[in-house]
Amino acid sequence: MDEHHYLIRGGIAGRERMRVVGRVMRPTTLRLLERVGVTSGMRCLDVGCGAGEVTFDLASLVGITGHVVGVDLDETKLDLARGDAEQAEVGNVEFRLGDVGGGLGQEEYDVVYARFLLTHVPDPEGVLQLMIDAAKPGGEVVVEDIDYGGTFDHPTTDEFDRYREIYVEAARVNGGDALIGRRLPLMMTRAGLERVEVEVVQPSGLEGEVTVIPALTLENIKATAVRHEVASGDEVDRVVDALYSIARDPEAFVASPRIVQVWGRKPGVATVGPSGRP
Ligand SMILES: C[S@@+](CC[C@H](N)C(=O)[O-])C[C@H]1O[C@@H](n2cnc3c(N)ncnc32)[C@H](O)[C@@H]1O
């Protein structure tokens, strides 16, 4: 899959949106990584790492005795991430260019993680299997992804409802599933993972960056939505303007998509490094 077929605009513009999303999601992602038991000395893989928003947090959790690999197909974002790693002198991360479909290695990692990736791929079960293959026996496979059915504003506006509709449909015609979150627990259990645990989080607020994410997201999927005739460019622009007004309104409450966090253990006995759970 090349960037042309990726739902959300990539490169520098895409990275800026992911920075906002990354800041909003960081507290709940850090709590997830803590619950999973990511700790010093581990080897981790961040699949669909983008510009490394979570890769760098994984790197600081595993410390200098650990190692983190980030994989993505967007070379621009990876270059920016490599630049950030160099500037901050983070020596235990490595960013590799690649499509997940090409495989992720065999039994190499204590933790294999993906955030907001499976929603975009046409064969999420297949990608999950590749993630499981890459985990060591006893290793943890961790996924967090969206369920767009849960995003809302209050007081409700037609424009926000239309935004949700455009996103879900644009994802669908592009081969993805914007409602994948609700499918993840069963998908991971059926894939053979043990001790599967689930948490649902939903960043929301009357103000702050969380309220701007809908406008930024719709701006970034405009090309895909128009290309697939899900909406006209004029309609997208009109809805984006309305979403920015909602973001500026201190009396408008905005709830992001629900994020379903699921993690489970690959069967087998951990041979090297901490397993994260007894
Ligand atoms: C929404 S971003 C999430 C980035 C990062 N995981 C985060 O949460 O900040 C999804 C990322 O998945 C990447 N991606 C999509 N399909 C991919 C594929 N088939 N192989 C590798 N990366 C892919 C995109 O390039 C993009 O950077």
TrEMBL record:
Source organism, top-level taxon: Bacteria
> Which positions fall inside the Methyltransferase domain?
39-165
Q: Name one Pfam family in it.
A: Methyltransf_31
InterPro entries attached to this UniProt entry:
Methyltranfer_dom (IPR025714), SAM-dependent_MTases_sf (IPR029063)
Q: Which SUPFAM superfamilies match?
A: S-adenosyl-L-methionine-dependent methyltransferases
Name of the protein this chain belongs to: Methyltransferase domain-containing protein
The organism of origin for this protein: Nocardioides bigeumensis
